[in-house]
């Protein structure tokens, strides 16, 4: 059989290749997951961080995301330790505008401790009741087998809702 995909300088990288064996050293960016909210969390007390109920799995390559009550977490499966990119977006809706400012926060927790936060401090004239008030956070973390990741939302100075629109929790192994 003649080899047509090799030149004297090496492989023709513009061609497609069909391998029948195993290719080692290639990264697949898994495990990977993305979860969303099917129902808003309403009438939450100000100044308290709440676990966000990301109860709908959009995808979960390794079955490592738990979408049940009081969990809503990704847990690093056996043999999958490494560096992970993790992100979350929240939509907070407030109940008032009676405070001099609002601070909305999206927290990413690993093993019950905050490792990253996205926040936005706004004067009450800028925070819109019954509107989309998005905030996000992301981080790269070195995770071990059994480590778990969760997302919390918080608003200072007014009770609030966590709305479903554009709310998501996602991540994937990068190394």
Number of domains: 1
Largest sheet: 7 strands, antiparallel
CATH topology: Jelly Rolls
| SS summary, helix count | 0
- % residues in beta strands: over 45%
Radius of gyration over C-alpha positions, nearest whole angstrom: 21 Å
Terminal residue distance: 37 Å
**Regarding CATH, which class?**
Mainly Beta
Shape: elongated
Helix content: under 10%
Return residue spans where pLDDT drops below 50 for at least 5 consecutive residues.
Answer: none
From the helix content, strand content and strand pairing, which structural class follows?
mainly beta
**What's the CATH architecture name?**
Sandwich
Mean pLDDT score: 83
Tell how many strands the DSSP assignment holds. Answer: 15
Kindly describe this structure.
The protein is 0% helix and 50% strand. The chain has 175 residues and is mainly beta. The chain has one domain: Jelly Rolls, CATH 2.60.120.40. The strands form 3 sheets. Strands 3, 4, 6, 9, 12, 14 and 15 form a 7-stranded antiparallel β-sheet that branches. A hairpin with a 2-residue loop joins β10 (101-110) and β11. It starts with 5 loop residues before the first strand and ends with a strand.
């Amino acid at each position: 059989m003649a080899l047509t995909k090799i030149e004297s300088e090496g492989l023709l990288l513009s061609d497609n290749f069909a391998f029948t064996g195993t290719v080692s050293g290639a990264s697949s960016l898994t495990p990977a997951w993305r979860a969303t909210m099917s129902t808003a969390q309403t009438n939450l007390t100000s100044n308290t961080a709440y676990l966000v109920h990301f109860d709908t799995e959009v995808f979960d390559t390794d079955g490592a995301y738990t979408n049940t009550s009081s969990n809503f977490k990704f847990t690093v499966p056996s043999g999958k330790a490494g560096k992970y990119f993790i992100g979350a977006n929240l939509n907070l809706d407030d109940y008032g505008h009676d405070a001099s400012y609002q601070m909305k926060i999206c927290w990413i927790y690993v093993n019950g401790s905050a490792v990253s936060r996205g926040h936005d401090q706004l004067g009450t004239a800028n925070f819109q009741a019954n509107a989309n008030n998005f905030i996000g956070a992301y981080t790269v973390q070195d995770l071990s087998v059994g480590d778990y990741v969760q997302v919390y939302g918080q608003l200072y100075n007014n009770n609030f809702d966590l709305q479903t629109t554009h709310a998501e929790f996602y991540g994937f192994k990068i190394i």
